[in-house]
Amino acid sequence: MPLASLLIVVAIKLWAQRVDIEFAVIYTLVTLTLTGWATTASGVEFRAVKPTSAPLLKQSFGTSAAHKLGTFIVAGPLTLVTACLVTIALTSLLPIARNGQLAMGACVYPLLIAVTIYGICSSKRLVRNGLLLFATSGVVSAFLFL
Amino acid sequence: MKNIVSPTQVKASFDAHSVIGLCTGVLLYLICLTGTLAVFTDYFERWEQPLVAEFSGYDSQTITTAMQGHRQHIGGFANSLFVVLPSDSKPRMHVSGDSKEWYVRSDGSMDEPIVEGWTHMLRALHYYLHLPATLGLLITGVLGAVLLALIISGLIAHPRIFKDAFTLRLGGTRRLEQADIHNRLSVWGLPFYLMVGITGAFFGLFGSLLYVSATAFYGGDRQALIEDIYGADPSLDAPVVALDIARALETQKQRHPQTNPIFIVAHKLGTREQFLEIGATLPKRLLYAEMYRYTVDGHYLGQQGFEDGPLGLQILYSTYRLHFGYYGSIWVRVVYSVMGLALTVIVASGINIWLARQSGRSWANDIWTATVWGIPLGLSCAAIASVILNLSALMSFMAISLLAMIFCLHQKNAHRSATTLQGLLSLSLLTLSAGFFIRFPDAVARPLGVSMAIVFIGLAIGILLIMKACKHTLSRP
User: DSSP letters of A56-103?
Assistant: First the structure.
């Protein structure tokens, strides 16, 4: 599998002979996606419809309204603010020009938000995570503004 | 993946994937669907105003006349006066400044004003959900980050996702079928979804990064930060002279023959600080445009430096075309729309899986049916209202979407509601195709009308086929 993945590099190289490297990467990945879908669709199997017992594994999020609201606040505004401050603080340490720092920040910021949201939603320790984010915001704010 | 992620982590990731998806499903669906359509906004704009003159060749006189025409219409020069030049996807010229825009005929005279109709509504819905711009952009930016969170949690929650990449089993229970569709579309489209997530988040969240950076490092002076990133405007103090677009274009052709001008901006015309900028695309580059600066009488001042500037600047200026697929031929846009539609289906099937896991039905089934089929119906009816009946596109969209919601909640039968909405959607697309020719009987509008009618009829047939397929799947557990 890892060796087969090297074919992607070959494909990029081939595309790059016709278009520039920026487009070569895009076109290779798009071709891979479309080929993957087409191959998958060509091997479609049809299951027989079996009479199943209706209630399947029921998934519920039986948490209190306060917990739901807390999750929203921690995974929403608090994550947004903390990720923004941390991104700026980290990128400001890089020895590159301001526009480079911001471009790097623009890529890191959504990823940091995504990872934090995932971490909060997959953890049961909401209060601990909330306090951790709050403390991080405080420390980074002090570093940036004081 | 199986070895490095524990079953507990898989379960936790699965729960996180469900929670994040459920909380943002409706908005994500709306953003994905409007994004899929937004790829074709150039074509929709042409179709909305089919009587506007189309041409690809132009000369400096056309541009000069257009600028003077704009000045006459608004009673003075706009602070920044834009002339957007014809392109392959939109062979029309338009002039805009101080929020007043007109299309331009090939001789430079003013044509119809640009209508903020259905396409404008669609674009604003995708960009900022018709909320106040700052808040709306922030929300859509966060949704881009949420898409990334869903990708991360989805990958960890499905350890076999790469192993099963080629397995698609339809039929059986609705839950398993939807799960297979969801997972197969997701895994192959992963690079594209990562790209739209990051670039989408960039548009919405960059403002907040700028704001905090300016507060932290520039004493709150955002303009200083922007000038530090993009470069400041040239500072001129010269006698006021007449415009010489011909000379600027000629110099541009001589100095940068490989570039393709897409717009010209005249700044501070009629003052001692006046200057011109030519925005031009570069061959084989994703950069939105490099800016070439001239005095108004056509002397070259220099370029802004996106082309060969720091990598960060080049990345910042490449995200727009990358996100929307505004490069290459029309086939790039077609592929983007297919990918966008796949992402829309992934969002819809994700919630479908969750609903299928629930025992019994609830109001959530009705709300979701109204979202999945009511929003496209709302968009289609809004196009009829705006293009054919000259009514407000936004109000029509909101009214139809709300009616669809009420209808589904009243019916309390997701299967029947979906079938009805699908039928209405097909009917509305056919009405839109035919209605266009009643509204614009002119021969000049016919080619655009026919092209769009073919697309709409194709979509109507596709929806009827889905309707037929859903007849069996929706009734399954």
Answer: -S-------HHHHHHHHHIIIIIHHHHHHHHHHHHHHTSSS-HHHHHH
Cα atoms in the Cβ-side hemisphere of radius 13 Å centred on B289: 15
Q: Do A56 and B141 touch (CB under 8 A)?
A: no
What are B292-322's pLDDT values in tens digits? 999 999 999 999 888 888 887 888 888 999 9
Nearest to B216 by CA among A128, A140, A130, A57: A140
Reduced to 3 states (helix: H, G, I; strand: E, B; else coil), residue B96 is strand
Which amino acid is present at B140?
Answer: T
Give CA–CA dist B29/B371, Å, rounded.
8
B208 interfaces chain A, CB cutoff of 8 Å: yes
Measured between beta carbons, the chain B residues lying within 8 angstroms of A37 are 184-185, 188-189, 342
Share of chain B above pLDDT 70, in %: 98
C-beta atoms of A113 and B217 within 8 A: no
Report how far residue B350's alpha carbon sits from residue A54's, in angstroms, rounded to the nearest whole number. Answer: 19
Q: Check if A59 contacts B (Cβ < 8 Å).
A: yes
CA distance B1 to B158: 9
ipTM value = 0.89
Judge: B13–A20 Cβ closer than 8 Å, yes or no: no
Cα A87 to Cα A99, A141, B322, distances in angstroms: 14, 12, 23
DSSP string, B253-285: HHH-TT-EEEEEEEESTTSTT-EEEEEEE-TT-
The 10s digit of each residue's pLDDT in A92-129 is 999 988 878 888 898 899 999 999 999 999 998 999 99
- B383 CB near a chain A CB, below 8 Å? no
Residue B79 clears pLDDT 50, i.e. is over it = yes
Is beta strand B169-171 parallel, antiparallel or unpaired with respect to A45-47? parallel
- Say what the pLDDT of residue A135 is: 97
Using an 8 Å CB-CB cutoff, list chain B residues near A114: 145-149, 151-152, 197
Contact at CB, A88 and B166, closer than 8 angstroms: no
Residues of B in contact with A23 (CB under 8 A): 284, 286, 327-328
